[in-house]
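Supplementary material to the annual report.
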Amino acid sequence: MPDEKTPASDNPYTQTHLVQSGDTLSKIAEKYYGDATLYTKIFQANRDVLSDPNKIRPGQKLRIP
Amino acid sequence: MKKSSLWVLAALAAVLVAGCQNQRAPAEQAVASAEATLTTIRDAAMHYAPDQLQAVDAQLASAKDSLGKGDYKAVLAAMPALNTAIKNLSDTAMAKQQEAQAANDKAKDVWGPMSADVPKMVDAIASRVDILSKSHHLPKGVTKDSLTAAKSSVDSMKSAWGDAANAATAGDFSSAVSKGQAVRDQASQLMHSLGMTSG
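Predicted assembly:
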C-alpha cells in the first residue's frame, strides 16, 4: 500500500454528512466520533468549503474523515 | 544329444540374441525420445496437470525399468501407450495454461480499477480509526473492543494489500485480484462496523 494517504477530499469512501438545521461541527463530531472536541478534524477535512468552524449551513455536504 | 542338434540350438540362440540386439537400439531411442518430449512439457505439466504427469512418469519409469532389464520387446510394446499418454498430457497442460492465461488477462482488467479503489477504502478506515483512537467517548455502535479489532484489521489489510500488489507486479493478476477482493470485503465489513456507511 502506498505511503501517501488519499486526502479525504479525493476519497470517495470518506463518509459524508448533510448539514441539517441546528447542526454544529461539535454536534456532528459527537455523532460520528462520540467526542465533540474532535470537530476540528471535520473542519480541517472541509477547509475547501468552510472558512469558519462556527459557520455551517443546512444543505452543505461535509466530509467526515 | 547329437552334435547336429547342438549346432541347431546354438544357431537358434544366436538368432534370438541377434533379434534382441536388433530391438535394443530402437528401444533405447524410443525411451530417450519420450523422455526428451516429456522434459519439454514438464514445467507446464507440473503446474497444470500434476496427477496426469505422475501417471506418465510411472509409465516412463516402467519402460526404463524394462530397458534396464534388457526386455526391449516390452519397451517397444509399451511405447505407443506412453507416447499417447505424453501427447494427452501435453494437450491437457497446454489447454489449462491457455485457460489460466485468459483468466489472468481478464483479472488484469479487474486489477486496474481495484488497485485504485481499495487503498482508498483502507485509507478512509485508517483515518477514522485514528480519529476514534483520540476520542474520549466512542460513538453509538462502536465499542472499545471493536475499535481495537479495527486497528488490528487495518494493519492486516495493509499487509494483505501488499501481497496483492506484489502478485500483480509479478504478473499474477488472478492471485492479485483474489487477494485484493478479500481486502475489499474486509474493508466493507469494517466500514459497516465503524458506522461509516450511513450519512
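The beta strands of chain A are 15-18, 61-64.
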